[in-house]
Structure formats: structure tokens, C-alpha cells
Write a structure and sequence with these properties.
Autotrns_rpt; signal; Autotransporter_pectin_lyase_C; mainly beta; elongated; eight-stranded parallel beta sheet; Pectin_lyase_fold/virulence
């Protein structure tokens, strides 16, 4: 099928099946394979069972029925769009070559039988997801991954803490997945800057590929956003980090070990954090609770609290490092009496110190194991 007009399209609604290739002695066609040529779009919407395979050399082929691709292998050198509003059967497997794109439209999943999904280096797999998308989206015998993964239409749910993060099962194959995508592209421009999504082979089951919500702090090459240490929360918003924030490999925009709090909202750290860079509370509130710690024992890192910003901790929380306060330093929350907030380092105070976060609760202690200036 050759469609030369890049703006043109042709829909084959007939059912395509194998034919006797001996009927025309002058034909070089095998009677059972389909080849797409030209820059236009070919749409297959019939109930097809041809067995010789589908080759896309140019333009776009749209599989608009669940059996559009027949039973043979799919060989994609251009653009293959699976848009059948159901589970497309491609039991011969699909190979997406370098420079080509295979796309799963919203509402479409892919079943490869015992065959393989192969995404070569330089290829693109584009999947459209929403909250109603089935899991897993792709099943088959095996998968060899490379190139780019693009996720469209997906959104991140609001979470109260990282303990609520969830994963989407993109693939579930019969054998371990080999290779990996080199990048993940996902539009998260309207989402909190401290959240990202990472594509990864499931460490507990290498036959599965997951899209997992996570902190931008821990982002990798296959995350939707670069790694950084900024947490921006708007007025009235709050988020708790229960996991441990440790040093990461830096990049051109972040040293991999510093935290910046922006926005009028509240960020709570309840893990025993080991990152060694500065903590800059520029706006809003940064609070330590539970096992909340900044820095390892003996650390010389700095916590800098800007004017109009608030930093503090509940009973048993600790800062290992120097604190410079130009805003408000709070020890113990409004529900506590007898709370001890420990600073293992010098304290330079040019702001306000308060016992209790919403009132001047008596009986709390700020313990400073260092020099006090202020």
C-alpha cells in the first residue's frame, strides 16, 4: 500500500487474509504480507488474519481494530499507531527500529502472545495513559528496550506524603526484560516540582516495567524531570517526606546534596536524612518530626532560615550542623510539652525563637550543642 500524499489517508475496512500467491505468476508478492510505503496514512480497521507480517517503511499505519495487524511480525521503520479502543493482538511481535515510533492511543493495550516487543536504540514508544488505563498495558513473551519512552495525558495525584506513592504497571512479560529506555518524557509542568515519575524495571520482578511516582530528589535518567532539591509548596499545602534524603550525583543545576524550601506551604521531614549540603528555608515552613534529622553526626552543614520563613522540630528531632536563623525557629509543636529539639552545632539567631508552633507552649527545650550568637 503506497500513499504518497502526506496529508492523505486510506481506510481498509475489508478483512485481509492470506491468498494463493500462485494465482498471478507475474506477481512478486507472497500473498500474505502487507507493506506500507509513502508519507500518507493507512488505516486498517478490518478483522485481519493475514500471516506474513506487517512492514511500515514510510508514513503512518493505524491499527484501528484489535486484529488489524494479522498474525505475523510487525516491522516498524516509520510510525505505527495502535488505536483500537481495546486490546490489540500482535502475536507475531513488534520491532520498532531506530528513528521510528510505536504509539498506543488512549484506551488501547497491546498483547503480543509469546512474541517480543523490541524497541531499538533511537526508537520511541509513546503511550497515552489516564486513571482508567488497564494494567499492565503491554503483555507478551519478552521485551528488549531502548530509545525513548514518552507518556502522554497522564497526571499525578495529590499525595500527603511519599509513603502514598504508587506505580503503574506498563509491561508484564513472560521473561525478564532486557535493556532499558534512555529517557522518559512526560508533561509534569503543572505538578509540584518535588514530584516526578520514573520508568524502571521492577527490582522485585524483572519481567515487569513500572512507572513509579517519586521525589525529584531521587530522579534518574529515566525520570520525567531532572534531579533537584527544591520543594515548593503553596499556601495551605503540605507534604511529608518519610524516606531518607541522601546525597545524589549532582548535575548542572543541582549539587546533589542541598535542599531548598520555597512557597508558603509546609514541608515535613520525618526520616533520618544524611544529605550533606545546605538546607535553605527561604519561604514557608520546614519541619522535622518523628525520626527527623538533618545531617549525620559531626556534620558541618548549614541550615539557613530566611526572614518570614519558619524552621523547627518536634520532640527527638535533630540538626547536625550550624543553624542561622533570620526568621522563626520553633522547638516543639503545639501538642507537645517537654519536647527537646537538638541542634548539634552553632546557632546564630537574628530572628525569633518560639516554644510551640501555634502558641508559646511552656516546657519545651531547645538544646544547642555549640556556640550561641544572638
Amino acid at each position: 500500500f503506497t500513499l504518497s500524499d502526506p496529508d492523505g489517508s486510506f481506510n481498509v475496512a475489508a478483512n485481509l487474509t492470506d491468498v494463493d500467491d500462485t494465482l498471478d505468476p507475474n506477481s512478486t508478492w507472497d500473498g500474505k504480507s502487507l507493506t506500507k510505503e509513502g508519507a500518507g496514512t493507512l488505516i486498517l480497521s478490518g478483522d485481519n488474519d493475514y500471516s506474513g507480517g506487517t512492514t511500515i517503511n514510510e508514513g503512518t499505519l493505524v491499527a484501528a481494530s484489535t486484529t488489524a495487524l494479522g498474525t505475523g511480525p510487525g516491522d516498524n521503520n516509520a510510525t505505527l499507531v495502535l488505536d483500537a479502543d481495546g486490546e490489540v493482538s500482535a502475536v507475531g511481535g513488534i520491532t520498532t527500529h531506530s528513528g521510528a515510533t510505536t504509539q498506543l492511543a488512549l484506551g488501547t493495550s497491546l498483547e503480543l502472545g509469546d512474541s517480543a516487543l523490541i524497541q531499538e536504540d533511537g526508537s520511541t514508544l509513546n503511550v497515552e495513559l489516564n486513571s482508567d488505563s488497564v494494567q499492565p498495558l503491554i503483555t507478551g513473551g519478552s521485551a528488549t528496550l531502548g530509545g525513548d519512552l514518552v507518556v502522554s495525558d497522564a497526571s499525578l495525584q495529590a499525595r500527603a506524603s511519599d509513603a502514598e506513592f504508587q506505580s503503574f504497571k506498563l509491561m508484564d512479560m513472560d521473561s525478564d526484560i532486557s535493556g532499558d529506555f534512555t529517557s522518559l518524557t512526560m508533561n509534569l509542568t503543572d505538578k509540584p516540582d518535588y514530584l516526578t515519575v520514573t520508568g524502571t524495571i521492577n527490582p522485585e520482578d524483572a519481567s515487569e516495567y513500572l512507572l513509579t511516582e517519586g521525589l525529584s530528589w531521587n530522579a534518574t535518567a529515566t525520570s520525567a524531570t531532572p534531579a533537584h532539591g527544591t520543594f515548593t509548596l503553596g499556601a495551605g499545602d503540605s507534604f511529608e517526606v518519610t524516606s531518607v534524603l541522601g546525597d545524589k550525583t549532582g548535575n548542572g543545576d543541582w549539587d546533589g546534596k542541598s535542599l531548598t524550601k520555597l512557597g508558603a506551604g509546609k514541608l515535613t521531614l520525618s526520616g533520618a536524612n544524611t544529605y550533606s549540603g545546605d538546607t535553605n528555608v527561604q519561604e514557608g515552613t520546614l519541619w522535622l518530626s518523628g525520626d527527623g534529622t538533618i545531617g549525620e553526626m559531626g556534620s558541618q552543614q548549614a541550615v539557613n532560615v530566611a526572614s518570614d520563613a519558619t524552621f523547627g522540630g518536634s520532640n527527638g528531632t535533630t540538626v547536625n550542623g550550624k543553624v542561622t536563623n533570620e526568621g522563626t525557629l520553633v522547638f516543639g509543636d503545639s501538642e507537645e510539652t517537654g519536647a527537646i529539639f537538638t541542634l548539634n552545632g552553632d546557632l546564630i539567631n537574628m530572628g525569633t525563637m518560639t516554644s510551640g508552633s501555634s502558641s508559646s507552649t511552656p516546657g519545651n527545650t531547645l538544646y544547642v550543642d555549640g556556640d550561641y550568637t544572638g
